[in-house]
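#struct-help
A.M.: can someone run this one for me? Single chain, 201 residues.
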Amino acid sequence: MQTALIALAAYLLGSISFAVVVSRAMRLPDPRGYGSGNPGATNVLRSGSRTAAALTLAGDAAKGWLAVWLTVLYTGQAPAAGLEAPLAGLCAFLGHLYPVFHRFRGGKGVATAVGVLIGIDAWLGLATLVSFGVVALFFRMVSFASLLAAVFAACFTFWLYGLRPVSAVVAVMVVLLVARHRDNIRRLLRGEERRIGEGKG
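D.P.: on it. Structure tokens below:
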């Protein structure tokens, strides 16, 4: 019962789409109606408001982190020691992808996944962010950097924790994140994916 309640609360927290909330608060267009149609920080940036994009990024990451750490405070377990905290992170991630408050039209989950990783292990989150930054710097493609960083995150988690539940949870998040990037993957394979600074992608 406790695990089910934690999962539900984390999902509801994850269902808060900061791209939509911030855009409404700042009287900007709904991010689901322009650019890529994705309610995430990268698309919100296309509205021309860096502040809105930064707030979206921070909010989406924070809810992933908060889901993990509220669970840690409630259960008293270390983030990676049991199932509850990683599961809460996964449910927050699922809430972001399929938000009940926004007709299940969610984002791709990159920022929320990073927040979950930081909540589980700050070094794990930092290593993933560095991986993203290096790939983005050299290839100048957010989607490609996100995909590679996700794969690295799964590898880092397994290296740090072996066959614990946290490794399985991160693996599931990575699979879902890759699936949400399927259109980007098709464009990458065709050589049509936009680079940073090139406009609509």
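A.M.: thanks! The chain has one domain: 2-190.
D.P.: also worth noting: The chain has a mean pLDDT of 93.
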